[in-house]
């Protein structure tokens, strides 16, 4: 449920950005991206607050085992980071979709995940003995951070080539 709610704004953003860019309203497209990014981060922070307050309750809804609840409590900080980064990643991917640059987003995500995320996850899991803490979140965090940097740079460059400011 958390994932779906924080991923809804990017879908709306991609439609709004494509409509505004198609109409030649770059300022309105920028405004849509700014509002969507703020909304997405706000929703992510809201869910993080729910996790901070009730991570024991969340675990008890799905299991009666104290060991599994303790494991969930240990991985909760990584889950919080993942929620925030994933919400902003969704907005940037929505902007790329809205501008018709799906190939840019797909290439960026694949390269960032396999060339940066997986090696860092392997390092964290097996050299630093974090094992289950990083099997999902390690590659995703690296991929999201690198992909965001690359997408910002590419979007800025593509807009600059069209004579627009990012």
UniProtKB/TrEMBL annotation:
Gene Ontology, cellular component aspect: membrane
Record flagged with keyword Membrane: yes
Coiled coil: none
Record-linked Pfam families: MatE
GO molecular function: antiporter activity; xenobiotic transmembrane transporter activity
Superkingdom of source: Eukaryota
Keyword Cell membrane in record: no
Residues that span the membrane, as ranges: 39-61, 68-85, 105-126
Keywords: Membrane, Transmembrane, Transmembrane helix
PANTHER family in the cross-refs: MULTIDRUG RESISTANCE PROTEIN
Family: Belongs to the multi antimicrobial extrusion (MATE) (TC 2.A.66.1) family.
Name this polypeptide is given: Protein TRANSPARENT TESTA 12
UniProt organism field: Aegilops tauschii subsp. strangulata (Goatgrass)
């Amino acid at each position: 449920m958390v994932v779906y709610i924080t991923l809804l704004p990017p879908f709306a953003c991609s439609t709004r950005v494509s409509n505004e860019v198609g109409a030649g309203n770059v300022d309105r497209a920028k405004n849509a991206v700014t509002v969507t990014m703020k909304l997405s981060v706000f929703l992510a922070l809201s869910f993080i607050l729910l996790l901070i307050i009730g991570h024991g309750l969340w675990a008890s809804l799905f299991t009666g085992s104290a060991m599994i609840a303790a494991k969930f409590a240990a991985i909760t900080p990584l889950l919080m980071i993942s929620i925030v980064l994933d919400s902003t990643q969704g907005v940037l991917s929505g902007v790329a979709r809205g501008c018709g640059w799906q190939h840019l987003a797909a290439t960026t995500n694949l390269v960032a995940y396999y060339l940066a995320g997986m090696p860092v996850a392997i390092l964290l899991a097996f050299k630093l003995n974090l094992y289950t803490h990083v099997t999902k979140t390690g590659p995703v965090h690296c991929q999201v951070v690198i992909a965001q940097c690359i997408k910002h740079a590419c979007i800025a460059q593509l807009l600059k080539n069209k004579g627009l400011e990012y």
